[in-house]
Amino acid sequence: MLPSLLLRQVRLCRSNLGSSVSFCHWHQQQLVRSYSATANTNDDTSNTPSPNLANTVFSKRYGTRTKQTRSRQQWTKEEDELLEQLYKEHAPRYTHIATLLPHRAVATIYNRCQALFQRTTTRHGRWTEEELEALRHLTAKATDWHTIQQQLPYPRTLFSIKQTWYHTLNPQWTRGRWTKEDTSKLEQLVEQFGTDDWCLISEHMRTRSPRQCLEKYRYQIEPGHKGQYTPEESAAIKAAVDKYGSRDFKVIKKAINSQRTSRQISQHYRYALDPNFDRSPWTTQEKLEVYRLVQTLGKDMVKVKEAMKSRRQIRDMWNQYNNVKAWSDKKRRSTTS
């Protein structure tokens, strides 16, 4: 039998999911079963996180849908100003604040407040390799999310910790390149079930999370205009960004009447048009400096970028680091053979 604490967690827990990718009843069952399996073994080296953790992530089936009743748009300046006023007047009554912002979920409001008003104590943004390794180590033990939160190298919200484990470290999911068979299966499931419930599709895939299925289909499979951007398209995007800003590319897509997805337009602008980044040819000195600083500071490219005072994009810096590392490894093997 499952411990009474676990049963109470399954019945009572309400996670901070909001309108983001959420978790399915089927997934919960799988992890509860894994608890039963691990409860009957003394193997302490298992890589499966404690199901106590899994059950505190979710308690009911929300489904990952593309047609949400709550907004998933980026927050506008006006919304942030209103939220700040409401936060000062009503915090920590986030449910009450949500009644005054009916198009935003309670969890979304809570997370936005954490990001805006708790920056001195809580870290936000991309997780470092150090943090991911610590989370991987901590979730391999039988403990709880609050304990994990206290033992991480940097303070993170519980929501961020749970989401990162579920989507990044959960050993249930296959990661890396999709095979042709997996892609074909996803296409068949979308044709069968539609695009309203990605949890259902994930249940049938069994090896890919709802978010992985959604992003694979939406950004790589879904019909839409693809191929190189014409100079006219790029000019139209730049003009629209100058007029409307770069916060919401759905607005840009509508303004230029493009058949491309808002994600495609956003990435093209970020990686090819954004004037805030340096796209000049890399010098040999720059490449070696990136490699040297990674060896010194660790695999935190944000720190490396700050140390170099560079305007390069993080993705480009990783590409250059990996190129130099591959060359260095090859040279080292040739000298030792």
Automatic annotation (TrEMBL):
SMART domains assigned: SANT (SM00717)
Highest taxon in the source lineage: Eukaryota
Example of a GO MF term: RNA polymerase II cis-regulatory region sequence-specific DNA binding
Swiss-Prot/TrEMBL keywords: DNA-binding, Nucleus, Transcription, Transcription regulation
All residue ranges annotated as the HTH myb-type domain in the record: 67-121, 170-225
SANT domain: residues covered: 177-224
UniProt signal peptide: none
UniProt keyword Calcium, yes or no: no
All residue ranges annotated as the Myb-like domain in the record: 67-117, 119-169, 170-221
Annotated GO biological process: snRNA transcription by RNA polymerase II; snRNA transcription by RNA polymerase III
GO cellular component, one term: snRNA-activating protein complex
Official protein name in the record: Myb-like domain-containing protein
Gene giving rise to this polypeptide: ABSGL_07579.1 scaffold 8890
